[in-house]
Write a sequence for this structure.
């Protein structure tokens, strides 16, 4: 039962993190009274009210009465029709943003008795799109006025030219040709406008699908990195545990032999001395390998828990970096890679250790995969200095480096110098975590053949 509970809790945590990272505002209301039971981070940013503050409140507690009545009317329409309702334009006044226009999709959720239980809503801010549409209409209106003006001028010219019948016949014929050309141009413009609007809608749909796919791939990349870490640590633990088991087996055999000699009263001082020395050697070997196992498990446990929980806490920067490197040691054990950490032993941060773990895990794996992939030796140096309330970090390796052609693109999603060695999301994840999660900055310098230098600046307290 504990295992199932943990799995359900982890699933709920994953869903919450997943929904909070979606760029679209999402909310859930109770069917019976319209009270909010959930809304995600995007909804908080849009409305300017935290999810905790909105819990159990209704639209009437948050927006003006007329607006709330409109929202409730739409909610009841969803349950009445028992189907998805798409509201193309939903005006909403937000104090910190002003008047916004939302495109909202609402769908009912029923219990096992087919009774309405919740209402799920997903919104999209289309204010800018509506502004663009209005500007386009205004442009078309001005164009029509201009055409009318030109047509009016031509008619006035025709009225004057009627006095000169002989000369006007040729001119009238020419003017008619011009009018036909204008109409053809207008028709062509209308057709092109419709085509452009259709292409815009198709491109918008494609962009939305690409954004969703990117988010899914980023989450998959994070979980894949954690899975690889688990496999590596498990494999690394097998060695000291195996040695410990062998030592215990040998010690048990020696104890049996000594017990047999004891029963026969045949123990000599030499036998007893050799037994004590052997037992002491076995105990030391067991103790050493158990300490190694405990150290690996503790490092992996702290780093993996931080990566999953994403909670803020105080931690020692240098010792946490050592835990990260220790947890990745199975990856580097077949190469002679030296790690040099240069920072204050007492440097404390109040931030998100999971985010730091993801950043440095990705940087270290990037060095291993690309910087040292054809090298057996290398060096990674991490320097950290505190300047007032900021932390300046330099991450260096002396690997293969990055070409001047690739360097401007390394933080772009799906960019990789070798399609066979990664998805191209590792450094993109690092960039997004540093910029968005930790509110810092990151840049990179590199000379091919001489390694890379990542310069990171972060606040001491996030």
């Amino acid at each position: 039962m504990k295992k199932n509970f943990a799995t359900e809790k982890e699933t709920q945590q994953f869903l919450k993190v997943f929904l909070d990272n979606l760029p679209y505002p999402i909310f859930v209301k109770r069917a019976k009274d319209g009270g909010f039971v959930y809304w995600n981070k995007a909804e908080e940013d849009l409305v300017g009210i935290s999810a905790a503050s909105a819990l159990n409140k209704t639209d009437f507690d948050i927006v003006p009465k007329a607006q709330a009545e409109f929202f409730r009317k739409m909610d009841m329409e969803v349950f009445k029709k028992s189907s998805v309702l798409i509201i193309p334009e939903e005006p909403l006044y937000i104090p910190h943003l002003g008047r916004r226009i939302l495109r909202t999709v609402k769908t009912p959720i029923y219990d096992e008795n087919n009774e309405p239980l919740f209402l799920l809503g997903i919104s999209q801010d289309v204010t800018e799109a509506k502004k663009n549409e209005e500007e386009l209409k205004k442009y078309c209106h001005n164009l029509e006025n201009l055409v009318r003006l030109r047509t009016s001028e031509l008619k006035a010219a025709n009225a004057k030219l009627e006095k000169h019948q002989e000369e006007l016949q040729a001119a009238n014929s020419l003017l008619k040709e011009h009018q036909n050309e204008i109409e053809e141009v207008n028709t062509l413009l209308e057709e092109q406008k419709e085509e452009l609007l259709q292409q815009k809608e198709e491109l918008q749909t494609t962009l939305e699908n690409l954004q969703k796919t990117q988010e899914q791939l980023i989450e998959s990349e994070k979980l894949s990195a954690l899975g690889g870490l688990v496999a590596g640590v498990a494999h690394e633990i097998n060695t000291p545990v195996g040695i410990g088991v062998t030592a215990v087996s040998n010690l048990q055999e020696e104890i049996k032999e000594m017990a047999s000699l004891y029963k026969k009263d045949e123990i000599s001082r030499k036998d007893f001395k050799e037994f004590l020395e052997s037992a002491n050697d076995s105990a030391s070997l067991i103790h050493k390998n158990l300490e190694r196992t405990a150290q690996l498990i503790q490092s992996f446990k702290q780093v993996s828990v931080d990566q999953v929980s994403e909670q803020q806490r105080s931690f020692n920067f240098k010792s946490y970096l050592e835990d990260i490197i220790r947890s990745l040691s199975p990856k580097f054990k077949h190469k002679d890679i030296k790690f040099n950490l240069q920072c204050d032993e007492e440097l404390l941060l109040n931030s998100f250790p999971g985010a730091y773990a993801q950043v440095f895990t990705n940087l270290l794996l990037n060095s291993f995969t690309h910087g040292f992939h054809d090298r057996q030796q290398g060096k990674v140096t991490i320097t950290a200095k505190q300047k007032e309330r900021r932390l300046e970090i330099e991450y260096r390796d002396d690997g293969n480096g990055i070409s001047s052609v690739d360097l401007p693109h390394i933080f772009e999603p799906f960019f990789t110098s070798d399609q066979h060695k990664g998805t191209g999301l590792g450094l993109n994840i690092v960039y997004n975590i540093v910029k968005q999660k930790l509110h810092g900055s990151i840049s990179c310098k590199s000379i091919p053949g001489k390694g890379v230098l990542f310069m990171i600046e972060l606040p001491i307290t996030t």
